[in-house]
Amino acid sequence: MIDVLSLFFLISAIIILAYAVRHYVFGFKVLTSENNCSLEKMLAFYNPTVTIIVPAYKEERVIGRLLGRLVELEYPKDLLQVIVVNDGHGKDGGRSAEIIEAYSIKYPWIMAIHRLNGGAGKARALNEALDYATGEITVFFDADYLPNRDIIQRFVPYFQDPLCGAVQGYIYVLPAKGIIPAIVRLERIGGYRVDQLAREKLGLMPQLGGTAMACRTSLLKSLGGFDPEVLAEDTDLSFRIFESSGFKVRYCEHAVAGEEAPTTLLPFWNQRHRWAYGHFQCAFKHWLSLSKDENLNIWEKIDGLFCLGIYLLPILIGLNWILTLMLLILGKPILPSNFSMLLMSLLYFAFAGFGAPFAAFCGCLAEDNLGPLKSIFGLVLCYFLNVFICTKAFLDLIYCSVRRKQLAWRHTPHGN
Hints:
By secondary structure, the protein is of the alpha/beta class. Helix content is 53%, strand content 12%. The protein is globular.
C-alpha cells in the first residue's frame, strides 16, 4: 500500500509542478514580449452588423448602467442590434422589466425578451436570444459589466480572418471595497493580462469567459448555441469551436470591460463552485475528442488539457497534503529521511502555490501598476480555499451523475 501511496504522491507532485511551470512560462512570455498590436490594425475599416446579447436575472441594480453604456457605444447604431433577456421576469418585482422596456421604447435597436419561466440557467436565456440575432457578429455582456465605448471596434477586425470563430476581451474588476474584490482583481490580472495574453502570443488556445466576448453568429448557430446542461457554457463553447473545422478563439487585450466582483464570501464560494462544477463537466466531455483532434497541434492539445484540468489542480493539492502526512506517519518517505521529504514538499508547495501570484505580479508589471499587489497574500489564501471549493464541486458532480440529477444554477447577486 505504501508503494502505491508513494506513486500517487509523485504523480500528483509532477502535475502540480507542471502547472506551476506553465504559470512561470506564461509570465515571462508576457514580460519579455513586445506589444506588436498596432492601433491601425485594431481599428481597421471593417463594419459588419453586430448583435449584442445581455442575459439578466434579477439585475435591477445594474442593468440600467449597462444599457446606458451600450447607448454610448461608438459603433454605428444602424449596424447594432441589442437583445436583452429578462430571465427573471417578475421575480424582482418587475423593476428590471421597467428599466429594459424604457430603453427599448426609446431606442428601436434595443429588443426586450421577458421569460416568464426564467432562472433555469444562463445558457437557455442566451439560446432564446440567439434565435433573434441578425448580426454577422454576436457580442455577449453580463448585466453587471461596463464595456469601454470602443469595444466593438476592437472585436470586429479579427473576424476578417475566416478562421476566427470567437474573440475574448480583457476583463478587469470595477472599484469596490473589501478583500474579496481585491483578490478577484488580482485573479483577473493574472488570468487575462498574463494567461490569456500569453496563450494568444504563443499561438495556443485562449478561452472564452462567457462575457465581454464576440462570436461569429453563423458558427454559433451551426453549433446549436450553448449547451444548457453544462454550467460552464463558455468553456464548453470554447472547446466546441476548437473542435469545429479548424476555427480558432482569439484574445484581444484592447477590448476592455469592467465587471463587478462578489463582495462577500458566500457569493464568492457559490460562483467558484459553479465554475468548478461546469469545468469538470467540460473536462469529462472534451478531453478525449480534444486529444484526437487533427485540427490542433501537439502544443494546442497540451494547453487545452491543462485548461480542462485547471480545477482538478486544487484537488490534487489537497490529496497531496494527505499523502504527505500518510507517508510520514507510515515511516516510508520517498526521500532518505522524513525531514528531506517534508522539505521537498514545502518547496514544491511554495513553487506551485506561488505560480498564480507570480502571474498576478507579472500582470501588474505589464500594466505598470503595482498597487493591486498589496492584496497578494489574499490570493495565496484563495489558493488554499479553492482546495475545498473544487473538492466539493467534484463530489457534487459525482453525486449528480450517479443520481442523474442536474445541479441547480445559482445566481450571483450584483449591485449590492
